[in-house]
Each structure stands twice: as structure tokens, then as C-alpha cells.
Design brief:
The protein contains 2 helices and 5 strands. It is α+β, with helices and mostly antiparallel strands. A 5-stranded mixed beta sheet has the order 1-2-3-5-4, with helices on one face. Bound molecules: coenzyme A. The site of coenzyme A has 21 residues, from strand 2, helix 1, strand 3 and helix 2.
């Protein structure tokens, strides 16, 4: 988070990853510290990753997988223009067993969605 006057004291609020996969595609993942949830940062983050992927990286297809019960993350993806492609069975094993996920993706030439940034 911006500690505006002293960047050296800035405290990370989470992490995000963008992974390139063959050919012309990329995947994104992100997690924020619990105390900043609901502030709109995830929307900003996904918008930045999306614009970086489709801009400088020249990616054509951007993918994200999200647990079927993760309504907040699904909302963030949909707001950024991602479309639901289908259910991935037993995508990963959580503490309580295997979990299904929803596969979302956005193509570079999909019609633009509204801004992913709250208030934007
Ligand atoms: C998913 C995560 C990144 C969302 O972060 P966030 O800062 O709360 O996201 P934002 O504030 O940008 O937006 C959340 C949106 O989901 C909505 N939302 C939150 N909880 C919700 C719920 N239980 N049901 C439906 N919508 C919900 C919010 O209202 C908001 O929608 P809005 O923009 O229309 O108001 C955060 O919860 C997180 O890090 N979770 C743990 C890791 C994780 O799940 N990562 C994603 C893996 S794909």
C-alpha cells in the first residue's frame, strides 16, 4: 500500500502472478491480505494485469480459475470483462477435499467491459 511519503516503508497488501503459457495465452492469480478486502484493490489489480497482458506482452487469451464458492473473486473477474467458460472438476485439493473451479477467460478482441476499477 502506498506509504506516500516514504516508499521504503510501504507494506505489501498481497501478491499477484501472471504466467505466460503457449501460445499467446497467459494465466493470472492473486491474493490480498484479509484486512484490505472490499477496498477495490483486487479490481484494480486485475485491470492492471489485463492491460499489461494485452498491451506490452501481446497476449491474446487471458485465463483465470476460481473456486466455485469464491463469489468475490468471480465478481472481480466479471467486472474486468472475463467470461465464464465452464466448470473444472476437482481443480485442486483444499483442506476439506477436492474443489471444483470455474474457468474464466478474456480474449484480446472481446468487446470491452466497463472499468474493473471501482468508481472508474
Ligand atoms: C478475491 C479477493 C482478491 C477479492 O479482493 P477484494 O479486495 O475484496 O476485491 P474488490 O474489493 O476489488 O471487489 C470485490 C467484489 O466482490 C464483491 N463481493 C465480496 N464478497 C462477496 C460475496 N460474498 N458475494 C458476492 N460478492 C462479493 C464485492 O462487493 C465487490 O464487488 P463490487 O466491485 O461490485 O462492489 C480477496 O478476497 C482474496 O485475496 N481472497 C483470497 C485469495 C483468493 O481467493 N484469490 C483469488 C483466487 S482466483
Amino acid at each position: 500500500r502506498a506509504d506516500a511519503d516514504d516508499p521504503a516503508r510501504a507494506v505489501p497488501i498481497g501478491n499477484a502472478a501472471l504466467g505466460l503459457v503457449p501460445y499467446g495465452a497467459a494465466t493470472i492469480g492473486y491474493a490480498l491480505r484479509r484486512d484490505v478486502w472490499g477496498s477495490g484493490y483486487a479490481g484494480e489489480l486485475v485491470a492492471l494485469l489485463r492491460d499489461f497482458a494485452f498491451g506490452p506482452l501481446g497476449v491474446h487469451r487471458l485465463e483465470a480459475r476460481v473456486d466455485v464458492d469464491n463469489a468475490a473473486s468471480i465478481r472481480v473477474l466479471v467486472r474486468a470483462g472475463f467470461r465464464l467458460e465452464g466448470r473444472v472438476r476437482h481443480d485442486y485439493r483444499g483442506p476439506d477435499g477436492w474443489r471444483d473451479a470455474q474457468q474464466y477467460a478474456l480474449l484480446a478482441d472481446d468487446p470491452p467491459a466497463g472499468s474493473a476499477v471501482k468508481g472508474g
